[in-house]
Structure formats: C-alpha cells, structure tokens
Write a structure and sequence with these properties.
27% of the residues lie in helices and 25% in strands. With 862 residues, the protein is an alpha+beta fold.
C-alpha cells in the first residue's frame, strides 16, 4: 500500500491471489466414527451454472496484475495502445506500455496541490489521455458535514463516520467525505424538474436548454461550497469549470463518450449534463428516472446504472429511453446489494455490435440491446469477481487481449481466453453455509485460483429474499446429509453442530491442521477449545469477543453477571434520570449477554442447567431495570425509535451488539457504559480512541475488558468450519479448509472477525485488517468521526492507530479466550421469548425457566 493524502478516503480492502502446492492426500475418520463414499449434493442456489457431461474446452482465466494503487476510479485503453489507471491516491495516474504487465506512476499535473485541497469524487480518462475530475473542496465538505450533523433529526442517521460505518463494517471514509450527497452546492434552490439556474429542463427526451458555467470572480467567492470539474487535456493548460447543479442537485459522477469527444456529468436530481470541453458551457442533456452512480456512452447509446435502480438505456441522438426488460429482469434477480459495504455490487461497460456488458459477482455478461438473452462470457464463480470484498469500478474489452478489470481497492486483473483449459473444471467440490458467508467466498476464490481443475459449487441455504425459513433449510440439509448426499464442506454457523458431532457427521480435522501447521500456526487456545477425545471436528476461521467499556473506577471487582448488575445499579443511583447503558429493548440486553452466559446453560451430559439459566435471566432483568429506571419520556422515545430501526436490521445480532456505537455515546456524554461485540480491528482502534476524545473529559478515564459473565473467557466463533465425513472429496475439502486458515487469507479478514492464524492475527492487528494507510503510525490519528445526536449535539473525534502496547494487549486477550459460544437459534429463541415475558413481569422467574424447559424438551430429544 502506498502513501495517500490523509484527507482522502482509505477504504482499501486487500486480497491477492495465492498460488499453492497441490492438495495432499489425507484419509479421515469421522468424529463420530461414521464414514461414507458420496459427498455430492447440497441445498439451494449455485454461484454459477455448470452442466453437461461433454468436456467442453476454453474459458477466460484471471491473472492478478502487479500493481498496487490507491482507490481506483478508472481504467482506460488509450488510442496509442497504452493503459491508464486513475487513482484517488498518491500519484493520481499510472501507465502501462505493455498491456498491464508492468505499471509506472505518471503523476497528473498539479495532482499533489489538488489532492491537498479537494476531495475527488470521480475521475475519468479519454482515449487521447485527457483526464476529467469531479472535485469538491475540503473546506466545503467540512462545513456541510457539521451542518448535517447538527440538523439531523435522529441520532442514527446523523452519524458521519470517517473510518467506517457505526459498527466498523463499511468502507472507510475520512471526515471530510461524510456529507453523503447532502451538502449544498451554491446556496440556490432548485425546483422539481427544473434545469440548473432555474431554466426549464423540458422533458426527459433530449432537453437542450443551455446554461453558462459560472467563471467570474464573484462566483469564486463561495468556492468552498461548490463542486468543480477539473479538466486536464492531453495538450494545453488545466481548466476548471463549475458543476452545473443547484443546491439540491449534487453532482455524482462524470464520464467521456467512448471516443472522448463528449463529456457528461450526472447529478443526484437526477439529471445528466453535457459539458463543452473548451468553454465549460453546460447543457441539460436529459433528466433520467434513476440516480446514476455510473454511466457509459458509446456509439449511439448511453447506459445509466443505479445500484438500487438498475440499468436504463437511452438513444444518444434522441435522448429517448430504450425499453429493455431482459437486462432489467437480470439485474433484479442477480445483482443483490451487499449491505455491509458502500461500494457498487455491479457495473456496466460498452460492448461491440450494439451490446453492453454487465459485470457482477456471478460473472461478466454480454447483452445485445433489444435482444433476448444475457450471455455469460466469464464465470464469476471461477474468479475474483465473486469476492465480496472486491468491487469493480471499471472493466474494459481490450482489442486483442481479452478483458481487464480495475477494482476500487487498488488491484487490477486481466482475463485472457485459454482454449486448452476445460470450460468446466474436471472436479467439483460442494461448500455450504446457511447464510452468505464472505470468508468462505473469499477462500473459495483463492482455492480455485490455486487449483484451476477444481470448481467449488457454493450453496446457500437461505436466500436474501427470505423465501426459505431457517427451519426448512436445516431440515433439507439434514435430510441430504443423512442420505449421504450432503455438501463436502460446511460453514456450521446456525446449524445444529452438537447433533452433527454426536451423529458422526463431521470428519476429524486434525490431519489437515497438521499439514497446515508444518509452516503456520493456529492459536493454541482456539485449537484446544475445539479438541475433544483427541479430535477436532470443527474450527472457526475467525472469532469475536464480547467486551464492555466504562470508567475504570466502575470496573473494580466486576467478575461475573451479578457483579455487573451491581455496577449498573450503583451507576443508576449516582446518575438518576441519565442514560447508563444503551438498552433499546429487552431483546437487546438479552442478546448482548448471551455470549457470556449461554455456554453454561447445558451440562456435559447435554441437559439444560436450570440454575445457570435462572441466574442469567435474573441478572439480565436487574441490568435492564436499572438502565430504564427513571428515564425521561423524551429519552425513552429516542430508545423506542432506535429499537424499531434495530429490529429492521438485516443482522439483528450485530445490531444489538453495537460496542462501537456505545463508545460514541460515552464520548457524547449520553451513556456511562458501552457493551457489545468487538468485531474487528477498526472497532478496537475506535474504542481506544475514546480515551483520547476531543470532546472534553467524556471517555478519557475509560478502559475496556471482556464482558464479565458466568462463562469465563468466552468468545464467539465466526465461520465455524467442518468437513463432511461421508464425502468422497475429503481431500479437496481439507484443501479448502487450509486455504481459509492460511496466513495470507487470514490477515485480510474483513469486516467481521479476528483471525485464528497466529501470524495472520499479528499482521491483521498491525494493519487493521488492511484498512490502515501506509503513513499510519502507532499512537497517531489516521481517521476521524463525526456524530450528531437527537438534540443537535455534534461530536467529532480523531481515530488513532492503537499503540504497540494496546495492540499487544488485544493479541494477548484473543490468545487467552477458551470458552466458545456456539449459537443455537432454537435455544436462543426459546430463551428470548420466555425472557421477555419475565422482564415485562408477565411471569415469574420460575415460570420463565419452566417455559424454556418445556419448549426445548422435544428439540433436545431429536
């Protein structure tokens, strides 16, 4: 990673292809002593469709190119045959004279000064080498961010996180970028359907009303609040133009036509303007129906793409929309938005012969405009296009060399057609998870790169639409496993793992781990936690821990759940009517304390421990009652609103365990305690930065520790992996396991979980999982955060790189946890249901425990 300006976005997530030796042959015995010879099958949809018995030959093969840049924004093949990359990084531009084999920095004229003063939203190259950039001054961004934070009506939406989203799972952004399209441009108002400067826009069919770009001295006095176009021609001096957009018509992207003769800017209104490259004069080209995050122009076509609105095609000569249900239906069915990241999940680029290419996680598809099919050209399941941590910003069809893709994370891949390799790999391995798992998908991509003769068919039990219930998905999987037709490799999160162990479904992983540990090492405490009778039936790819943060004076002698309740009750008596711990609902506190309690709910014989469950419910109610006691009505309404937002979250467990969000509330002075799941290295950096808060004394005496529960040193396994003992492909499954646990894979785990590979964990913590820019140094700020609460309070804080001591403390902590919290949805649902009744005083403690016992009696007997 190379140096970038500190004001610019640092949202890189690194992933490089790993080329490994062939898989070693291993013979396994199941953890329960059973075996078999058929591991085919699965439960639901594929990542790619492969069929037919004939051995077809030829497919595109990916090669990762040797280039490492800042955030990429464009890739262009110039008319002289050179390739150009445009980056929002140290150089601004990289050039290759040999079709991408080697790259050299070629700094844009004036780039260093520009990057110090402006945030670059978008940048594109023309075939002659000209470069256009869409910019906004940092002064304007900072003012807009402060205004947005202060005026926001709810605390959730008002957050402006420079590093990432509130839980640390989004792409990192610096504080100056946090306006999210809400900043004003020049103080003017624009009515619906109006062109810039108040002129009539006409309809969407080719409006050509002209608007002169403001260039006089008077217009420049408010430069801090304006978007600008910087045009660096191939020959001649750099030109600056004002963006043709009014206050609520924020510019979003720009682009040249394929031949470079025309320049367009798209806005949030949504309008598309054409810019005269000589004078800066702008005319409203058309008003579109979707907010464009990208578009491309070629021949007589314009394709406009919106992440949530799909792809809309227009005829360039008439500006009329071209109806095309085929591409619309394809996007609706196949291009699912990834809620964990801010980047696009699919992209478009021009194709030959009146066609357009669409690239998404499933691959590259070619569509003839007006045609009836989407032809798959590249199978995404066989390359990094399906990597959830990579996002294509530009893909091009090169004249003779196939395709080339630029990823926003600073990587580039080429795709060359190889007629000698089989279209479908000769071997197939099936992998399964109940819900989509990013770590597994990344491991599959890397494993297939090292083993091109193996196709990993990834099956997901529950689709994004929720058409399959968890119960139905598990029943279907269990039926196939018992019939000897289950998947070869499993992610066990959400599955009945204890039952699988008892029935001998899972193979012993010890031989695979022994092979891996000839060169690498898994954290000993994690291995020991999953060792029983000398065998390891399952092992996580990552882990999280439950932690709490408060003033260090409050932590004295807090060692278990009862002592935690004592502490909360004491804080309540000292701070009547004030927030103590964010507890939006009974569900929230029940979920937050499960990881440090649930491991003790069952005896070694597998029976429900009524005493442990009773203590958990009693102490949880004490904590909840103390938190809610005497709170003013306005604060209760705030909590209620946040509870409703949380229930609508796609990941309720994560939403209810928002440790980083609690840290924000401590800095704001709204709460005294934060409690929840520590998910990643950025979370840790953020929470350590609370102690260095720029907002007075709040948080400066805080410290963090494992949440004090009855289950000591507990952790939550993430991406818990197992191999089907009945599989005929245990050797291949073992290879996939080793890939998921390899140092190179582990050090880049993101956004959830800490690595279990010892060396991988060390690197991960040092680099914050690849999120830390090269210039970031221990103990120094590298990012920032802005937050506005419901009362207009604005909080701004710097986020610091953890010191070497803090990093070692976290490494030691993760190396010490020994009690896995194996989530069981059936048990947890039963406890939550009875627990809510008890906490609402609709039943006694004894009745709540009895209700759980009755509900689990049948389940435990199965």
């Amino acid at each position: 990673m190379r140096e970038r300006n500190g004001k610019q976005q640092n949202g890189w997530r690194r992933a490089a292809a790993l080329w490994l030796a062939g898989v070693m042959a291993l013979s396994l015995a199941g953890c329960g002593g059973k075996g078999g010879d058929d591991g085919a099958g699965g439960t639901t949809t594929k990542t790619g469709e492969l069929s037919g018995d004939a051995v077809a030959m030829g497919r595109y093969v990916e090669t990762m190119l040797d280039v490492d840049t800042g955030e990429l924004m464009d890739l262009k093949e110039l008319s002289d045959g050179k390739l150009v990359l445009l980056e929002n990084g140290a150089e601004g531009r990289w050039v290759s004279d040999d079709k991408g084999v080697t790259w050299k920095p070629d700094a844009l004229p004036g780039w260093n000064d520009l990057a110090m003063d402006y945030y670059v939203y978008d940048m594109k190259a023309a075939p002659d080498g000209s470069v256009a950039m869409l910019c906004r001054s940092f002064a304007g961004l900072t003012g807009a961010a402060e205004e947005d934070a202060g005026e926001s009506g709810d605390g959730e939406g008002a957050e402006e996180d420079v590093g990432e989203s509130r839980d640390g799972e989004g792409a990192e952004e610096d504080a100056e970028e946090s306006g999210n399209g809400e900043e004003t441009v020049d103080g003017k108002e624009s009515g619906d359907g109006e062109a810039a400067d108040g002129e009539e826009s006409g309809d969407s069919e080719g409006a050509t009303d002209e608007k002169e770009a403001e260039t006089d001295e008077e217009a420049e006095t408010d430069e801090g609040s304006k978007n600008k176009i910087c045009l660096i021609p191939a020959q001649g001096e750099t030109k600056w133009f004002d963006v043709p957009a009014d206050e609520f018509d924020i510019a979003a992207s720009l682009g040249f036509s394929e031949d470079g003769s025309r320049l367009f800017v798209a806005s949030m209104e949504p309008n598309i303007y054409e810019i005269d490259q000589e004078t800066g004069t702008a005319k409203l080209f058309l008003a579109v129906d979707i907010i464009p995050d990208m578009f491309c122009v070629w021949d007589n076509y314009m394709a406009v793409k919106s992440e949530s609105g799909g792809v809309v095609l227009y005829a360039l000569d008439t500006a009329e929309q071209i109806e095309d249900d085929v591409i619309t239906d394809f996007v609706n069915k196949n291009c699912v938005i990834n809620k964990n990241v801010a980047e696009s999940t699919y992209s478009i680029f021009p194709a030959e012969e009146e066609g357009v290419y669409l690239v998404c996680s499933k691959g590259v598809y070619r569509h003839v405009i007006g045609g009836t099919v989407m032809e798959q050209v590249i199978n995404g399941g066989l390359c990094s296009l399906s990597d959830p941590m990579k996002h294509v910003v530009k893909m091009i069809r090169m004249a003779e060399e196939g395709f080339m893709a630029a990823f926003s994370e600073g990587k580039v891949s080429s795709f060359a057609y190889d007629p000698e390799i089989s279209t479908v790999p000769s071997q197939t391995l099936t992998a399964y998870s109940l819900t989509e798992n990013d770590i597994l998908r990344q491991a599959i991509i890397r494993y297939q790169g090292a083993n091109p003769d193996v196709y990993v068919e990834y099956k997901v039990g529950m689709d994004e639409e929720g058409s399959v219930t968890r119960e139905d998905a598990v029943k279907k999987l269990n039926t196939e496993i018992m019939a000897g037709k289950g998947p070869d490799f499993l992610i066990l999160d959400g599955l009945p793992v204890n039952s699988y162990v008892e029935k001998g479904v899972l193979a012993d992983l010890t031989p695979y781990l022994a092979e891996l540990e000839k060169e690498e090492k898994i954290l000993p405490n994690i291995k020991e936690s999953f060792t029983a009778d000398g065998k390891i039936c399952m092992l996580p790819a990552a882990l999280t821990v439950s932690m709490y943060m408060t003033d260090k004076e409050n932590m004295t002698e807090v060692s278990d759940l009862s002592a935690l309740a004592d502490m909360i009750e004491k804080l309540r008596s000292e701070h009547p009517g004030e927030g103590i711990l964010e507890t939006y609902s009974e569900d929230m506190i029940l979920n937050a304390l499960m990881p440090v309690s649930a491991p003790l709910w069952f005896t070694e014989a597998g029976q429900l421990d009524a005493a442990e469950l009773s203590d958990y419910l009693e102490q949880t109610k004490r904590i909840y009652d103390a938190c809610m006691e005497g709170l003013p009505e306005e604060l209760l309404q705030v909590y209620q609103g946040r509870a409703e937002n949380t229930v609508g979250s796609s990941d309720e467990f994560s939403a209810y365990n928002d440790l980083q969000g609690g840290g924000v509330q401590i800095v704001a002075g709204n709460e005294k305690v934060a409690l929840g799941e520590l998910k990643n290295a950025y979370n840790y950096a953020f929470l350590q930065s609370v102690k260095r808060s720029d907002n007075g004394e709040n948080g400066t005496n805080c410290q963090m520790a494992l949440t004090p529960g009855n289950a000591k040193d507990s952790f939550r396994p993430y991406a818990l992996m197992g191999v089907n003992a009945a599989s005929a492909r245990t050797e291949l499954a073992g290879g996939l396991l080793r890939e998921a646990l390899s140092e190179d894979m582990q050090r880049m785990i993101y956004p959830v979980g800490f690595p279990v590979n010892e060396a991988g964990l060390e690197t991960y913590l040092e680099t914050l999982g690849g999120q830390l820019p090269e210039w970031g140094k221990p103990g120094e700020p590298f990012s920032g955060y802005g937050f506005g609460d419901e009362n207009g309070l604005v909080v701004q804080m710097s986020v610091y790189v953890p010191t070497e001591r803090e990093t070692k403390e976290l490494f030691d902590l993760l190396s010490s946890v020994r009690t896995p919290y194996l989530s069981d949805a059936v048990v947890e649902d039963a406890v939550r249901e009875a627990g809510k009744y008890y906490m609402e005083e609709q039943c006694s403690l004894e009745e709540a425990v009895e209700a759980v016992q009755k509900k689990l009696a049948i389940y435990m007997s199965e």
